[in-house]
Specification:
Distance between the termini of chain B: 39 Å
Distance between the termini of chain A: 34 Å
Shape of chain B: flat
Number of domains of chain B: 1
Strand content of chain A: 15-25%
Shape of chain A: globular
Oligomer: heterodimer
Number of strands of chain A: 10
Strand content of chain B: under 5%
Radius of gyration of chain B: 27 Å
Order of helices and strands of chain B: HHHHHHHHHH
Largest interface: A-B, 28 and 21 residues
CATH architecture of chain B: Orthogonal Bundle
Chain lengths: ~240, ~290
Amino acid sequence: MRKSFGNHLVLHDISLFVEENEVVCVIGASGSGKSTLMRCINLLEPIDDGQIFLDNQDISDPKINQDKARSQIGVVFQQFNLFPHMTVLDNVTLGLRKVFKVPKEEANQRGIELLEKIGIPEKAHTHPDRLSGGQQQRVAVVRAIATNPKLLLLDEVTSALDPRLVGEVLQLILELKGNNTTILMATHEMGFAKKAADWIVFLHQGQLIAQDRPEIVLSNPSHPALKDFLSSEIKF
Amino acid sequence: MSDPASDYTPSSLELDRRTFRKKQTTKSVIISIISTIALAVVIYLTLSNSSGWNRVRETFFNGEYFISALPEVLKGLLVNLRILVFALIGTAILSLLLAIARTTRTPVLFPLRFIARAYTDIFRGIPMIVLLYLIGFGIPGLEITEGRIDAAQLGTAAIIIGYSAYVSEVLRAGIESIHPSQRAAARSLGLTYNQTTALIVLPQAIRKVIPALMNDFVAMQKDVGLVSVLGILDAVREAQIEVAHSFNFTPYVAAAVVFVCLSFPFIRLTDWYSKKVQQREFAQGAF
C-alpha cells in the first residue's frame, strides 16, 4: 500500500497481515504515519496504490460499496469523537439503527448490555460531555463494536487520557481480545503492547521497518531506528 | 466520628472575604439605581423642555387615536402573521437546500453549487423592497396564469426568495463549523454521506447558529410589514389608512408596538431554548 498527500509521501511499501482474532499493535513516533494507515484502512482516505483486503474482499476497489465496507470496520479515535447532540445510548446504537436497520427496541437492548459491560448503564440517557474522559472513550469503544465489526481499529485511543483512565480503557481492550475481536491498534503504550499484542509492527517515516511477535520486536530490536525509538521511550 | 460537612466553620479569612463581597454587591446596586434615575431625569427634562414636544406628543402618542387604530392594525397583523408562517416554512426549506448544495463536494453537483452561490450573491444584494416590486408586479406581468395571482402569495414568495439567501449563508457557516472528525466518526460507523449530513452535521450545525437564525427571523417578522407596498391590507397598510383619515401619526406607533409585541416572545423563547441545550449537553454551563 502507498499513500501520499501532494508531494509528501506518507506511507509506502506497506505490507501487513492481521490474523483473525488477533491483536496487532502499530508503534512508531508521532508523524510516522500510524493515523494515516488507520484512516486508509477505513477508507476515510483513498490510497494511491496497493490493495486492502477485509475477509478476502478487496475493499480498496472503488467499484464496491464503501459505506458497506466501512460498516464492517469499527473505529475508535484519539479524541473520542462522540456525537455531542445525542445521548450516550443513541451514540452506541446509531450504527445498529441506521446502518443495520435493527429495530429501535432491540438496538437499545443491545446498547444497554454494552453500557453494562463498561459499567455505566445509568449514564445511558445523559449526553457525552457529562462523562469523564475514560468513560467517553469506553463509550466510543462500545459504539465501535456494537455492530460486531470484522475489524476494530484503535487509533491512539489512550493518548488523551490520564494514567488511571488509560487503565480503564486498556482493561476493556483486553476483555475484547478475550472475546474474539480482531484489533489493529496504533499505540504509545509499550507495556500494553508487550502484554496484549500478538504481533507488533514498527512504522518509521511511512515505512514498515520491523514486524514480528512482541518479544522479538521489543527485546531484540533489529533496526537502528527501532532501537532508537525504544530507547527514547525509556530515557525520560 | 466527625462529619466534615457539619463540623466546618469558615475561617476568619473567609468571613472577611464574605463581608467584603457583600459590601461590594450593595455598592453596585446603589450605583445602578442612581444612574438609572439620573438617566430618566435627563430624558424627561430634554423632552419636556424641547419646544416641539407637545406637538409631537399630540401627533404620535395620542391615546385616543391609538385605541381607535388598534383594532384595524391588529386585523392587519393577522395578514402579516399568515404571510410570516408561510415565509418561515418556505425559507427554512429553500435555505437548507441552498446551504447543503453549497457545502457538498461531489463533482456531480458542481452546477448546483454554482447556482446556489450565484443565488446567494445576487439576492443578498437586492433591497427587499425592490425584490417585492419586481416579484409583486413582474410575475403577474408574465401572465402565466389565467386569473389574478393573490398579492399576498407574491409577497410571501419575495420574502422567501430574499431571506433564503441570508439564512442559507448562516446555515452554511454552521455546517462548516462542525469539525470534520464528527463526519469521520459517522462515516466510520458505515453511515452514508446523506445520513451523516442529516443525523450528525445538521443537528449540531443548526444548534450552533440558532441565535443568528433567530436574528434573521426577527428581521423577517418586521420585513413582512413591507408587503404593504403591494397593496396588501396588512398592519402597516391599515395604519397608513388610519393616518390618512386622521392626519395623526399615532397609528404608526400602534403598528410599531404590535410588531415589537410579536417578536418579543420569540426572542425570549430562543434565549430559553439555547440555555436549555447548553445545560443539557455541556458539563460546564455558559460562562
